[in-house]
Specification:
The protein is mostly beta strands and 255 residues long. Helix content is 0%, strand content 45%. It has strands at 4-9, 20-22, 26-32, 40-46, 50-52, 61-64, 70-78, 87-96, 100-105, 122-129, 139-142, 145-146, 148-151, 160-161, 178-179, 185-187, 199-210, 217-228, 234-238, 241-246. The chain is elongated.
Length: 255
């Protein structure tokens, strides 16, 4: 009967890709056949990554995807007898780095505002893209950035966004993506008093990832943006979440 390579990711969530895998993913390798193949072993024929357990010569191994994107070809070879060296199964897969993220207001949370001030803030949840692979074996963080601000918000020009801690990643989800494990990103620009006039504030924040201690790499630049107008309207958005807005006369409210 036909011999086929079987790749089973550890994060085997419904609807995920079986030909694309996230950097650092763990994938069990086996072979789909009832035939007696004798001694067979998996090898990496092309690309990066590591194999464990292949020395058992039973057609099983654990493949750990590399820390960077690329193409990998895995082959199963006979390692003894007259057919030694023959390739009996193979699989070529794509390794994918995070290609962006999306933020949504944390469900059940509110919009922060202090009455009689320019203020508006929210809590965001972050999900990594693409949605068809898993990033459970990476860590990510927000990097540092300096604000560019003008007009009413010029007093915040050059404000430092400090690099955040490295965060783990939850399992895959084809609808939402892999959730970053933080309690919530408090998206806050400031609380300022009158007199009000037009103003603009922007942080272009690098988002970085690492795999098993590899060098941090930027995979997205996320915009934290706030504006002000002559009425004291505060508007804020970040990475697709928002804009949310409040005027000074709105009641005080917390997250």
């Amino acid at each position: 009967m036909p011999i086929s390579a079987v790749l089973t990711p550890h994060d085997n969530f419904p609807g995920r890709s079986t030909t694309r895998f996230g950097v650092g993913e763990l994938i069990d390798l086996s072979v789909g056949t009832d035939a007696d193949l004798g001694c067979v072993r998996w090898f990496i024929a092309k690309g990066e990554g590591t194999l464990a357990g292949a020395g058992g010569n039973d057609g099983r191994a654990l493949f750990t995807a590399p820390a960077s994107a690329g193409s990998v070809t895995l082959v199963l070879k006979v390692v003894s007898g007259t057919n030694s060296g023959k390739v009996v199964a193979s699989a070529t897969i794509a390794i994918v780095e995070p290609q962006g993220a999306r933020m949504v207001q944390q469900p059940g949370s509110g919009i922060l505002h202090v009455r009689d001030t320019w203020s508006c803030a929210f809590i965001g949840d972050v999900f990594l893209l693409p949605t068809d692979v898993s990033f459970t074996n990476i860590l990510m963080r927000e990097g540092s950035a300096l604000a560019v601000a003008s007009g009413f918000l010029a007093q915040l020009n050059g404000q430092l966004h400090e690099a955040g801690p490295l965060c783990s990643i939850s399992g895959g989800n084809t609808r939402a993506g892999c959730k970053v494990n933080i309690e919530g990103d408090k998206v806050v620009t400031g609380i300022l008093g009158s007199p009000y006039f037009d103003g603009d504030f922007l942080w272009d924040i690098p988002w970085e990832f690492t795999v098993r201690g590899s060098a941090l790499r930027v995979f997205a630049t996320v915009r934290h943006h706030s504006t002000a107008d002559a009425n004291g309207t505060a508007a804020i958005s970040k990475d697709g979440a928002g804009p949310f807005s409040r005027v000074p006369s709105d009641p005080t409210a917390g997250f």
